[in-house]
Specification:
The chain is of the alpha/beta class and 191 residues long. The protein contains 4 helices and 12 strands; from the N terminus they run βαββββαβαβαβββββ. β6, α3 and β7 form a beta-alpha-beta unit. Bound molecules: zinc ion (ZN).
């Protein structure tokens, strides 16, 4: 999406933007970039992330390339409604780690006139849609799918390969646990 087009949108309506893709595709960098642009325009911005993500920093969202912004940690998406009430732009990172009520929260925020930007994994390590991201994609006005580069063959990658044998859907980690792979090189573990 060309976000520069958004400057032409009237300020009194809200909407939902989703930035999704596999790990190492630059989702968080893109979220940070959009939030910074809004800050430069002196809009009131606030960023949230779920408590499950303890990588690197408790109070910042940090991309793998180490850009960071101050964020608030919440246990449940419903807390965002109160915490974001004065914000014009609401950023949410690691959307896939929230429960399904994130969709309702984002819809309420957008209906209140806020710009809502959610970054998250659209697929789990098996390549299956990672709730609540598919539901968010269905109700979002703007969708950006970021691609990484397959570490095996160099083609565009949209899948996250887990390098360990753990079977839990959520295993927090970075390059020690995951790598980006294309459809052809992605290996789904045995059920
Ligand atoms: Zn590949």
């Amino acid at each position: 999406m060309d976000t520069s087009a958004l400057h032409n949108v009237p300020r009194n309506i809200g909407w939902i933007e989703v930035v999704c893709g596999c790990m190492f595709s630059g989702k968080t960098e893109e979220l940070i970039r959009r939030m910074r642009r809004a800050e430069i325009a002196k809009q009131k911005v606030t960023i949230f992330k779920p408590r499950i993500d303890n990588r690197y920093s408790a109070e910042h969202i940090v991309s793998h390339s180490e850009q960071s912004l101050v964020s608030q940690v919440v246990d449940d998406a419903s807390e965002i409604l109160e915490l974001a009430k004065d914000a014009q732009v609401v950023g949410i990172d690691e959307g896939q780690f929230f429960k399904l009520n994130l969709v309702d929260v984002c819809e309420k925020l957008a209906t209140q006139g806020k710009r809502v930007i959610v970054a998250g994994l659209d697929q789990d390590y098996r390549g299956k849609p990672f709730e609540p991201m598919p539901q968010l994609l269905a109700v979002a006005e703007y969708i950006t799918k970021t691609l990484a580069i397959c570490v095996v063959c160099g083609n565009p990658a949209d899948r996250t390969q887990r390098k360990t044998q753990q079977q839990d859907r959520v295993v927090v980690g970075a390059k020690d646990v995951y790598e980006a792979r294309c459809r052809r090189c992605h290996q789904v573990p045995n059920e």
